[in-house]
Amino acid sequence: MLTSQAQAPPLSLFRLAKDRWTEPFWQAAAEERLVAARCGRCKTFRHPPGPYCANCLSQQIEYVNLSGKGEIYSFTVVRRTALPGLAEIVPYVPAVITLADAPGIRMVGAIVGCDVSEVRIGRPVVVSWVHGKDASSFPHWRLETP
Ligand SMILES: [Zn+2]
After folding, report:
1. Contact assessment for residue 1 and residue 88, using Cβ atoms and an 8 Å cutoff
2. Tens of pLDDT along 81-119?
3. Which pLDDT tens digit goes with each residue over 35-75?
């Protein structure tokens, strides 16, 4: 089916790689809360979460609730795929998102729920949750309506 609506990629493409640093992110996602890891000492955000702060090398880490608002930093529109099973979900729009209340980090996610021609660098977006079968949830992004 030909469409210009940005589709959500199938969740079968995602494989959670949880560890002690990323588990709090995925736990919050399951509750539809967007969080980001931040250094417990110097308060520098770090994403993806990891054992050391890139700024001060501290291993202290805290997870901060975010508003779920951001802005499109970069994106691409995928219109063709060589992978079987994905022809039904193009076009999809993987994007890099800057976060309104977590300076210095960006998250990757798909833009969904709009015509691909509406997607522009700098447009405000809001997080949108897509739920997997195993109680996992993944952040996608919708254009914020003025
Ligand atoms: Zn630090």
Report:
1. yes
2. 887 777 788 899 999 999 999 999 999 999 999 999 999
3. 999 999 999 999 999 999 999 999 999 999 999 999 999 99
Ligand 1 centre to CA of 42 (Å) is: 4
Instruction: Give the Cα separation of 97 and 63 in Å (integer).
Output: 18
**142 CA distance to ligand 1 middle (Å):** 31
pTM listed for this prediction: 0.90
Cα distance between residue 115 and residue 102, in whole Å:
28
Task: Enumerate helices (H) and strands (E) in the chain, giving the number of each.
Answer: 1, 8
Cα–Cα dist 26/109, whole Å: 14
Q: Are strands 69-75 and 124-131 parallel, antiparallel or unpaired?
A: antiparallel
How many angstroms does the Cα of residue 128 sit away from the middle of ligand 1? Answer: 29
CA of 102 to the centre of ligand 1 (A): 14
Give residue 25 CA to ligand 1 midpoint distance, Å. Answer: 18
Q: How far is CA 113 from the centre of its chain?
A: 15
Identity of the amino acid at 23: E
Q: What is the token pair recorded at 115?
A: 């015509």
- Considering only CA atoms, which of 9, 1, 6, 5 is closest in space to residue 86? 9
